[in-house]
Amino acid sequence: MVLAKGERDAGTIMVICCEKGTNARAYERMPQPDGTRKWTATRTQDPENPADFAEWHNRRHQQDPDLWLVELDVPNPERFIDGSGTKG
Fold first, then answer.
1. Which of 10, 16, 46, 62 is at a distance of 20 to 30 A from 55, taking alpha carbons?
2. Judging by DSSP bridges, how do beta strands 68-73 and 13-19 pair with one another?
């Protein structure tokens, strides 16, 4: 599900992976020293304080209105992220 639309041509994409709305993890394509971009886990939801994760990604979008927020709420969602290292 697209949670927030960013800039069409140049917006960064953040993918939030979860299963049944829990255990959320955020992945972003981060620049590497060789100029490529690699999917990197940037934040994990604290099971004791799940609201903190939602507040964090909302703040990220406010700081960068070009940011696309996409949520994958399916079993083993990391399998859809190229280069995540997760087998699916």
1. 10
2. parallel
Q: Delimit the domains of the chain by residue range.
A: 13-76
The predicted-structure confidence for 6-27, as pLDDT tens digits, reads as follows: 888 877 889 999 999 899 999 9
Are the C-beta atoms of 40 and 28 separated by less than 8 Å? yes
CA pseudo-torsion sign 7, 11, 14, 15: positive
Regarding the domain delimited by 13-76, which CATH topology (the fold level of the hierarchy) does it fall under? hypothetical protein tt1805 (3.40.1530)
> Are 5 and 68 contacting, i.e. CB atoms less than 8 angstroms apart?
yes
For the stretch 16-67, pLDDT in tens is 999 998 999 999 987 789 988 889 899 999 999 999 999 999 898 899 889 9
Residue positions counted in the chain = 88
